[in-house]
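User: Can you model how zinc ion sits in this protein?
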Amino acid sequence: MEIRTLMAKKQSLMEKAMAAAKKVITKPVAKKPVAKKPVAKKPVAKKPVAKKPETKQHKQYQVKENEKYMCKSQISHFRKILNEWKLELSNDIERTVSHMQTDITAYADPNDRASQESDMALELRNRDRERRLVKKINSTLGNIEQKEYGFCNACGEEIGLNRLLARPTATLCIDCKTLEEIKERQQAK
Ligand SMILES: [Zn+2]
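Assistant: Here's the modeled complex, given as structure tokens:
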């Protein structure tokens, strides 16, 4: 008798433990929409591509000996880089718009719908960023035509070839940029 009650107790404890374990196991399943996100977030996988442009690896530039800063060949290199970059971004923007137009599917599952909507919101934010970048590229191309390209907007010093190759749209030298960021951070506080 006693053993039986012990066994019963043990069993009920086991059941409890199993139920608890099941709960733990089922939790991620219940979180389906979250777990699913990486799959639904396909356009997000694109994000690095969309985001990359800002720190895009541009074509290298071979500096010749005795070459002057912002000489003709440097200027034409940057003009080329900026135009190619702009074209790439514009194609990207167009592609998304047509992709979104054909991809508006009505999901029965509200979770799917929600994740599709957040994907789209993200996509739109990315496109918005790209559109702003295109604007920036255009104004940079304008600077090139005005022969103002390559010099800091704040102090007038050379921005430097290396910085420009990494960030062709830079309008501030690294010192002024750093200063600006510090000021921004202080204002944000
Ligand atoms: Zn400066």
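A couple of observations from the model: The helical segments are 2-30, 32-40, 42-45, 47-51, 72-102, 110-145, 161-166, 174-188. DSSP finds eight helices and no strands in the chain.
User: Helpful, thanks.
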